[in-house]
Amino acid sequence: xxxxxxxxxxxxxxxxxxxxxxxxxxxxxxxxxxxxxxxxxxxxxxxxxxxxxxxxxxxxxxxxxxxxxxxxxxxxxxxxxxxxxxxxxxxxxxxxxxxxxxxxxxxxxxxxxxxxxxxxxxxxxxxxxxxxxxxxxxxxxxxxxxxxxxxxxxxxxxxxxxxxxxxxxxxxxxxxxxxxxxxxxxxxxxxxxxxxxxxxxxxxxxxxxxxxxxxxxxxxxxxxxxxxxxxxxxxxxxxxxxxxxxxxxxxxxxxxxxxxxxxxxxxxxxxxxxxxxxxxxxxxxxxxxxxxxxxxxxxxxxxxxxxxxxxxxxxxxxxxxxxxxxxxxxxxxxxxxxxxxxxxxxxxxxxxxxxx
Length: 356
What we know:
This protein is mainly alpha-helical. The protein contains ten helices and no strands. The protein is globular and about 85 Å long.
């Protein structure tokens, strides 16, 4: 048992920390979903500054220390640079819908497949392992750059990193689970990653990653039933789609917030969308393009084998068109729909080439 100091021993204690600061007697009450981040956004603790001067890592709402040293390189200090109105909701949903790639996927339902189908599945799994690595790696770089005053948005990004790491391992597991293995690296992520790494701020990165890149992958996940050959693959695509939808929602809601609170940046954001649509146009003009092995594997899976490649290719073209339509809906929801009315968007041209 630890020794207790005698009561009459003189102890020089500094209890200044007990001086009440901020909003004392604050009682956060759980709602129907428990005690969520939204439930603790009350009083002074729910006041989010438009510009953060917090460079010490101090939790929002806590008392500052005059002698605190600078801890982080917080370059994201304006609320409009990273905020979205549903940050708390997205974070809580991410917590409530976590799943395990080891135990929540019915791996036992996988049975031997024809060689061409198994090779196509493994090629897709290889490609998606690459894609999901990037989708987790890029947001993680912005977490440490974001002021603690915007911790809700940081929490969403951290949840995304966790989601993407699970996606990466579940597709790697699929590649190794049925007598196949990892196939050839597509190399298609090189230009995509390079473009994101050149982003000057979070909004530019988010427009490229969440709106364009992950949006296209979300469409593939949602169509996973068409290229799944067992319950394990159906489950993988369904669970990944629910996660990916949150990530895309982050980008859409952030872009909407940015549009409303920093309208001077609207034309800048339109330029990022111009760039994204230029990439979509290139893919539509040559659907195989730099994604040759990925597109071919998709067509094999959708058709049911190499002998039904043409049928699979027609289904793939339909998926490409759906990707474009869902991209349009996201952009409209984000508040930039005028580009489809004033002729700035090249989406009509893209869709015509995709249908050709």
